[in-house]
Amino acid sequence: MVNIALIGCTGSIGRQVCEVVRRNPHRFRFSALVCGKNEKALSALAEEFHPETALCAAQAEARLSSLFENADVAFIATGGFSGLAYTLAAARAGKKIALANKESLVCGGELVMREVEERKIDLVPVDSEHSALFQCLGFRRGAPYKKLVLTASGGPFLHFTEEEMKGVTASDALRHPTWNMGAKITIDSATLLNKGYEVLEAKWLYGAEFGQIEAVVHPESIVHSLVYFEDGAAVAQLGYPDMKLPIQLALTYPERLPCEKELDLISLGALHFERLPQEKFPCYGLALEAGKAGGTAPTLLNAAAETAVNAFLRGGITFPQIAETVRETLERVPHVRADSFETLREADMRARAVASGYIYGK
Ligand SMILES: NC(=O)c1ccc[n+]([C@@H]2O[C@H](COP(=O)([O-])OP(=O)(O)OC[C@H]3O[C@@H](n4cnc5c(N)ncnc54)[C@H](OP(=O)(O)O)[C@@H]3O)[C@@H](O)[C@H]2O)c1
After folding, report:
1. Minimum CA distance residue for ligand 1 atom 41
2. Closest Cα partner for 188 from 179, 197, 200?
3. 36 C-beta closer than 6 A to ligand 1
4. CA dihedral sign, ordered 323, 328, 333, 336
5. What is the pLDDT of residues 131-157, one digit of tens each?
6. pTM for the whole thing?
7. Does residue 194 have its Cβ closer than 6 Å to ligand 1?
8. Is 30 helix (H, G, I), strand (E, B) or coil?
9. Full set of structural domains in the chain with CATH
């Protein structure tokens, strides 16, 4: 029986983790369930799964050091910068980590990987692209390769002109062509910030140089990513776009249990690939620049993006103003070395204040 501490149990990923546990009650149970604020949904899950602990964020964050005591796996499925504190606490508790929260690596990659390496933590990616890379590498994050290729659906505005993007609404941006996800990541998929985040995630998970990571558009979202090897071979992982497979595999690997329906190649017919139009989606390049700058720069980028996406969802700014807010915040707040979680938290708070000031004109 594997005991899971699930952080972010009421969200899009969290509900799918619950579904995997529901289908495999003889294999998995929850030691802890944690949500943000949705007490009603948390109580319903607690009643169904009987974890030892069920907490909202405010209580959970006050007892981070004991949260993972009874867990075999920490499943980090909260959104945004809030995930980093949990990921670090799980690593310090010596637990296996199934990581959906990409911001943990985007913002705190250096700190997280230091803990993971020093304590020899089993860090397993849940993001579909990084799970695909993990599978292509034979479940060995340290295996040799030549290049990593991340696929991108391109989001709902792939073929829009810059002029057309000025007029898109939150509900247009929330209509993702292939994946059904939480609001923040869906908007990030429309700006391609999400693909930039995935490049940074791949850098930390697989020790890649930026020059070894490429992103290509693949509108069908069937090929989840590829690894190119020295001899010219390319190995890909294919499947229908459904997060339950990478979620379940993160819990069972190297064992595979029944999960998704098999691919029907004949009905798929053809798969397409095209260049990522970076010039139309400035958030992608901003993420890479922040990643290359390192230190607190990716945390500043993320805090500005979280602030801007919230404003966009409320109708407060236009779609192109998300990237403008991020760029402006990165210019206004100097980045420094990321030597501790406290440094990152201060950078996060500072950037949120600056981004809000830019948006609301203070
Ligand atoms: N959705 C996907 O398909 C997908 C795919 C790949 C990667 N990811 C990544 O996985 C993460 C979660 O995405 P999502 O789409 O599942 O987000 P989501 O639907 O917005 O869910 C977020 C979850 O985190 C909880 N939460 C918020 N603040 C918290 C805090 N301070 N402490 C503990 N829990 C907190 C929320 O609780 P409340 O309900 O109480 O607010 C909710 O359960 C993100 O980093 C995302 O980039 C998602």
Report:
1. 36
2. 197
3. yes
4. positive
5. 999 999 999 999 999 999 999 999 999
6. 0.98
7. no
8. strand
9. 2-125 (3.40.50.720), 155-191+277-360 (1.10.1740.10)
